[in-house]
Amino acid sequence: MKVKYFAWMKRTVGVAEEQVDVPADVRTVADLVMWLRARSAGHAEALAEGAAFGAAVDHRTAPFDTPLAGAQEVAFFPPFTGG
Hints:
Elements: E1 2-5, H1 8-13, E2 17-19, H2 29-37, H3 41-46, E3 54-57, E4 60-62, E5 73-77
Parallel strand pairs: 1-5
Antiparallel strand pairs: 1-2, 3-4, 3-5
């Protein structure tokens, strides 16, 4: 699965994207966040509990309870506004 990071999250993690092989028990976006936090201090900071960020699964915004079965890409991004 490809994981992408945008804006300050990219700088904090240290990469714009990475290819990961997630364990079978990582079933939702929330599970992925918890698993990624353990990868590095940058991941832990960018994906910290209480941090404001959103997710997209295969280019569609997704709540954190979204299942990952069959997903090819998950992206994380800070809040944004339109205008």
